[in-house]
Specification:
With 728 residues, this protein is of the alpha/beta class. It is built from 30 helices and 23 strands. The chain has 4 domains: 321 residues, 4-Layer Sandwich (Purple Acid Phosphatase, chain A, domain 2); 88 residues, Recoverin, domain 1, CATH 1.10.238; 125 residues, Recoverin, domain 1 (Orthogonal Bundle); 80 residues, EF-hand (Recoverin, domain 1, Orthogonal Bundle). It binds manganese (II) ion.
């Protein structure tokens, strides 16, 4: 085993490297700031994912997607391969061989993977929710935090600490998969370890050991690419029976996330939970809430309990920790779940430890991983006996080089490229932020317009930063991020300004299809104005239902429903339309604005000029026509972007919706199924609005495109939504 990875000396980064760069802690590339932004965005991300998983669950119910209760199948024994014995009676030698094969880039046979899952499921399903572990006097237990598919960290830990035995126990504290590229291998190794050492190796469930989450976060894709869907289901079945937490020598409580929001929870309550389910994203019962909290919560410095910005679990204060420890007669809590820069972190008067074991998380977070060691023969006195931070050397299969080269490259990278890496992280961060900007595109525009008193599209840096922070609701150093997100600066009165139109125009989703549907809406509005009469004042009254001199959003919506009953515009779309006309941004259209949009100084024909589609009349003023056409195009473009962004943002749930109808898993659905899938999605996700006519139009376009294939390829449909960050 020791030959797999040679262990370089412990790295204590803070002492060694400070002389190279004298960093200002608040600069954007400083380790601290960079790191803080990263975790902030990470948490923000998760709340979006939680919402999507709730929608997926509702979709399953609406579409009646069969809840195929996967029966517990037996281990396959008839195959030729000598990696494991046919009775799955594993020893550490088998596990070492397995690790060696994986590290050498060999693919583990699908039969082995499935057998491991079946055996582990059988082994775990009868175990209680709380694992009580006794560390022997002469022994120790190594506690490992999140590994997230980072094979290098797991191999490093095993090499360093040695194979498990009665005096060398392990507790892996959840989040084995997602993010990293080797979730399958990590969990396969952990499974084999557990099966070979049922009494010395323990696994706690993490919030990532849950199907819907894996669908969104990439583990499903990984397993299907490496094996198949069936194998994925075997793994998920196994995830569902993983224990929820563990207690070391009746003193130390180890759980992936944190404590329940309810204050009087004891181990008896926890053991009472029916855990063989996906982790509830929307708990229906107290039991489910406790289960979610255990796997999702985070500690906070303030007292009490608060909602968690992750969208699941809670934030619990030092008093909650004290109370829980006292009630259950424990001394310390060890939890993971949170990326911490040094691999570990201590809170709540040294009674709540965070432990994170994925070093250089996602290949660019720059953090150390850590493990904690508790020795049975020593007093713990609230503390682990040892904490080891490390930066695991990357494995050859992760880099395609020899181990010596990898270590050398790693060392050089750590020394020389620290700042460069952080810079790279900022770019990765801005790519994520681009998603958020897209998500709140209209809100941002609305507030920029509102803040722009001079209507010159320019706002001050401070204004820009305030609005970004208010609307996106992420605490980030927006002023410092500005050069990355909105690099073009315009000077006005000697001050730097952001042109918000140019800024927003940088963030678009590319999707190629003809949007003639909106032409038809414009035609109808135009026809209606024309039908009512040549006098614009009369036309205005047609829209100003209560006669107060302003067309409100509601009025506009009502009239549109009246004149285009088959269209069902979403309120966002009506709002957009209103904003396109509402020049002063006060939220309503007055007559002047109405005139400006639909009329010109002297001509009745102006009405038709304003929307230049089918109503052709003489074009007596070229300039006016041009600017009106530009307005119209702009409006159309914006509505189209709104729709495309909506699809883009919900692409994971959209894909799930199609899958509900794609019963044979071919990746194709019929035109009807396509429409039904989108409608099902709309029925459970109320924030997505697409008019019926638009769905029909889309389905028709797509079926014509893929005529030969006998259906709509929804995968390629979804892939067509691609993010474009336009850099001028
Ligand atoms: Mn987690």
């Amino acid at each position: 085993m020791a030959s797999l990875v040679s262990i370089s000396g412990e790295k204590s980064s803070n002492n060694n490297n400070n002389n190279t760069t004298n960093e200002d802690d608040t600069s954007l590339t400083s380790k601290k700031e960079n790191f803080r932004m990263w975790s902030e965005v990470d948490q923000y991300d998760e709340s979006h994912v939680i919402n999507q998983s709730i929608v997926m669950r509702s979709l399953d119910m609406v579409t009646g997607r069969s809840r195929r209760r996967r029966r517990h199948s037996t281990v396959i024994t008839e195959f030729e391969n000598d990696l494991f014995p046919t009775d799955m009676n594993l020893t550490n030698q088998h596990v070492e061989k397995l690790v060696e094969e994986i590290v050498n880039g060999k693919k583990i046979d699908i039969v082995h993977v499935q057998n491991l899952m079946k055996s582990l499921t059988a082994l775990l399903r009868t175990k209680p929710n709380v694992t009580e572990i006794t560390v022997p006097k002469d022994g120790r237990i190594t506690v490992v935090g999140d590994t997230h598919g980072q094979l290098s960290d797991l191999v490093y830990i095993l090499t360093r600490q040695g194979m498990p035995n009665e005096n060398n126990m392990y507790l892996f504290n959840g989040d084995f998969v997602d993010r990293g590229l080797f979730g399958t291998e990590v969990f396969v190794i952990l499974s084999a370890l557990k099966i070979a050492n049922p009494k010395f190796v323990f696994l706690n469930r993490g919030n990532h050991e849950s199907e819907k989450y894996n669908v969104i976060y990439g583990f499903e894709k990984e397993v299907v690419e490496k094996y198949d869907k069936k194998t994925f289901h075997h793994i998920e079945t196994c995830f569902n029976v993983l224990p929820l937490c563990a207690v070391l020598n009746k003193e130390v409580f180890v759980v992936h996330g944190g404590l329940p929001r309810n204050r009087k929870i004891t181990l008896r309550h926890i053991n009472h939970i029916h855990r063989n389910i996906e982790i509830p994203s929307k708990p229906d019962t107290t039991e489910e809430q406790i289960m979610q909290d255990l796997l999702w919560s985070d500690p906070m410095d303030e007292y009490g309990v608060e909602p968690n910005s992750r969208g699941a679990g809670c934030l619990f204060g030092p008093n909650i920790t004290k109370k829980f420890l006292k009630l259950n007669n424990f001394k310390t809590i060890i939890r993971s779940h949170e990326l911490v820069d040094d691999g570990y972190d201590i809170k709540h008067d040294d009674q709540c430890y965070t432990l994170f074991s994925a070093s250089n998380y996602c290949g660019d977070a720059g953090n150390e991983g850590a493990i904690m060691i508790f020795k049975g023969g020593l007093h713990w006195n609230h503390h682990p006996n040892e904490i080891h931070p490390y930066m695991a050397p990357r494995l050859a299969i992760e880099k395609g080089k020899t181990m010596a080269e990898i270590e050398e490259a790693e060392r050089q990278q750590l020394e020389k490229e620290k700042n460069k890496r952080r810079e790279a992280r900022i770019y990765k961060l801005t790519d994520k932020l681009a998603d958020y900007i897209l998500r709140f595109h209209e809100d941002l525009e609305f507030h920029f317009v509102k803040a722009n008193e001079k209507s010159n599209d320019l706002i001050t840096m401070e204004n820009w930063a305030d609005i970004m922070s208010d609307i996106l609701k992420v605490k980030l150093p927006w002023l410092k991020l500005r050069p990355y997100l909105a690099p073009d600066v315009e000077i006005l009165d000697g001050m730097e300004h952001v042109n918000f139109r140019k800024f927003l125009a940088r963030y678009v989703i590319d999707f190629d299809y003809d949007h003639s549907f909106f032409d038809s809406i414009l035609d109808r509005i135009n026809e209606e104005i024309h039908r009512v009469g040549d006098d614009l004042k009369v036309a205005f009254k047609r829209f100003d239902l209560d006669g107060d001199g302003n067309i409100s959003c509601q009025e506009l919506g009502l009239v549109l429903t009246d004149i285009c009953p088959d269209v069902h515009l979403a309120s966002e779309q009506i709002e957009q339309l209103l904003r396109a006309i509402d020049a002063d941004g006060d939220g309503a259209i007055d007559f002047e604005e109405f005139m400006k949009k639909f009329g010109n100084n002297n001509s009745n024909a102006a009405l038709t000029n304003a929307t230049s589609t089918t109503m052709t009349t003489k074009k007596d003023n070229d300039d006016d026509v041009k600017s009106s056409e530009a307005d119209h195009l702009d409006w159309k473009k914006r509505l189209k972007q709104h729709l495309i962004r909506t699809f883009y943002e919900n692409r994971a749930t959209l894909n799930h919706a199609f899958q509900c109808y794609d019963t044979d898993g071919s990746g194709f659905v019929s035109q009807d199924e396509f429409q039904n899938a989108i409608k099902a999605l709309l029925s459970v996700e109320t924030s997505i609005k697409v008019p019926d006519i638009e769905i029909q139009y889309l389905a028709k376009t797509l079926i014509e495109e893929s005529k030969d294939e006998g259906g709509i390829n929804y995968n390629s449909f979804i892939e067509r939504f691609s993010k474009q960050q336009i850099t001028s």
